[in-house]
Amino acid sequence: MMPEYEDRHRRVRARYDSLARQENACCDANYSPEDLAAIPQESVLGLGSGSPVRHADLREGEVVVDLGSGAGVDAFLAAHRIGPQGRAIGIDMTPSMVERARKIARREGIADVDFQESIIEELPLEEGSVDVVLSNCVINLSPDKAAVFQEAFRVLRPGGRLVISDIVQERPLESSNQDCGCVGNAMLRAEYLQTIREAGFRDLEVLEDRAWLTASDGIDASAITLRTTKPE
Predict the structure, then answer these.
(1) Cα dist. 132→61, 73, 173, 189, 227 in Å?
(2) Domain layout of the chain by residue ranges
(3) 3-229: CATH homologous superfamily?
(4) N or C: lower Cβ tally within 10 Å for the chain?
């Protein structure tokens, strides 16, 4: 990992360390009341931009990985859907987030979910070992998004699904030092989608699309949820 990438990781990790210590959000419009009732409330920090689990068509017994899992909201929701024969794995580079998620899992007795500390550009998973890769408003923070998509492709089994909610810029924005924010470090939409395709994914669909940041003359950034697959 290049020094400038490591520095970016350090700054993002520091910001999310402080967020890991806050109280859970009172609500999160990205999730239905039924979803929120099915998971531990302490896992909900209100940091997402969508609900990738809703579009992942998860099946019982599948292995699911959540990139940038935070306090575990999407990993717990996935675990609820795949059942005890499945396995949900949360990957996060912030130790305090991983510890918070692990404590919740232990307290609630949720055995089919596992949280691991790692950067998402280098996943601690074997090639072809996963059915579904999820991520929710995290890849925009990565300094090497191509590596993230390449790693997602590597760990997926043939026919596996990548389902992510994220932020994309709609037009070039002025450079910003706020690289811990979801817009300042986001890619342009066309570049983002092309980077996914160049990793090897096919049949990419944008399933949800809404304005995230607007200016007087139009939309600066959007929140999108997409699904794509690794070829058989």
Answers:
(1) 11, 16, 32, 23, 10
(2) 3-229
(3) Vaccinia Virus protein VP39 (3.40.50.150)
(4) C
